[in-house]
Amino acid sequence: MSTENTGTAGAGRHTNDELFEQSRRVIPGGVDSPVRAFGSVGGTPKFIASAQGATVTDVEGTEYVDLVGSWGPALLGHAHPAVVEAVQRAAARGLSFGAPTAGEAELASTVINRVARAGVHPVEKVRFVSTGTEATMTAIRLARGATGRDVIVKFSGLYHGHSDSLLAEAGSGLATFGLPASAGVPEAISALTIVLPYNDLDAVRELFAARGEQIAGVIVESSPSNMGVVPPLPGFNAGLIEIAHAHGALVIYDEVLTGFRVTEAGYWGYENGGVEHPYVPDLITFGKVIGGGLPIAALGGRAELLDLLAPTGPVYQAGTLSGNPLAVAGGLTTLQLADAEVYAKVDAASIAVRDAISEALDAAGVAHRIQHSGSLFSVAFGEFDGPLTDYAQVKASQTWRYPAFFHALLDGGVAAPPSAFESWFVSAAHDADVVDRIVSALPAAAQAAAAVSEPRD
User: Fold this and answer.
1) 362 is an active site residue
2) What's the rounded Cα separation, in Å, for the pair 239 and 271?
3) pTM
4) 220 part of a folded domain
């Protein structure tokens, strides 16, 4: 197996088909994260050789406008010069030390200060880990350790990483492949996770009335973005916190995806900016943007809770590469650059692309709804009376139109997410010229979606 094609220099030496075949011989499914395999849209995944700004280029030398953004981290665009320079400087000093660095405290302080709103600091301390899965897994362990209880509540269609406790009826890859859970998760662990329909406070009240004394915590995406974008109904997040706290349970906000992408303070700040008495979750998890494209994630919350983590408390968590200096440098530079102007550009690009998609689908006679939460958005095909509010509605949509829509966009030079159940991402690099390229590809994609017939069972 040739290994010469390892980056931009190797572009053109292999085709995507050849690389996929080679990869499948040595990597399960040929990919290291399931959605990358194009399993729900068909065809061969594009092997990316390089990325710059709003575009990615595959190994065959084809450039695409990118609407995946590495699934969220590329807020500034790919390979932002200042971020690359910061990482290069850090790399020159050493790749990993297994010891604390000054950058970790600086990044933690930046996270703490950005999240604060209306004089309220929902995050007082931060523990860095390497992945969003580690962050949510640690949050679950911390909630159990703090309360002395075992049961965790999650919501159908919401995805919190691939730890055993959180895979029941999850979104993202599990939704993409139609999997209800995962093999290898012991029944005893699954029994400690209760799954409720999203946006249903009555179901939450009923559960807590019956089993409140057993529940350690509730974990929720602050604005779900892994079953498509399905924002919380007005009052849902506040009501969830009120109910849980009344029964002594904790609330974990999963902002791995929305944190510092939906406004400079994440979705909590989006909902609570200017609010006199904001509701406050107990723990918040972060990822994606805080690494600027490098693997890092974090758990934050009240000091009294975070101090329960080792070495100051009895809840154990550790990681050899936690707080990796390269990831810290990339994340800190990204957050320093992510100012009001950046978020204004991202929001404007999102609106322009959403409007263009809707206009093209209307012209082709394709019933649809664009779901959005801040700059995050997704496309749902079908006739709807109003916004989609739960996983059942999402699953009932005409997802069978998406593969044709996706591949027509790809043929037109636009790389959308390879799943109907994922969010679309734009960046500050998606300027008017980039948006025009997307707009040019949309009529053919809309016609392709219109031409598809519903498959028979």
Assistant:
1) no
2) 13
3) 0.92
4) yes
